[in-house]
Amino acid sequence: MLAHFIDLEGIDQSGKKTQSHLLVTKLRRHGFKAATLDFPVYSTSAASNLAYGLAKGLDLEWLASLDSGLPKPERVVVLDVPVGSSFARKGERRDLHESNRALLLRVRRNYLKLANKFHWHVIDGTGPVEIVHSQIWKTLGIV
Description:
By secondary structure, the protein is mainly α.
């Protein structure tokens, strides 16, 4: 059986953890072996490296070179939420990156630009959890 690498992305509090859990659960119910990968704080996915690195003024080509040789996801899905929604979901106890509204705004813009450039899928992450999940499932077209 072939392995598939799906990357769910978005700014902090966009629903990545919730949607990853729902996706793995549904894949297992459909007979697939599925697992999640959580990246440590300072070791993030390639897409996240690009979005956050660009927001900090780093060069796109240089950032992309950092991940050369690593497995690339077949699909990248960006869960898009406005920065205000991120803060509404978690207002306190945010880390250094999470608490910087200006940085998150730049990161969100970068995700959207990168999605256009690399043909990533963008899903509105502000809707009800079940609706967002069904949109992810439909976008992936797995079953």
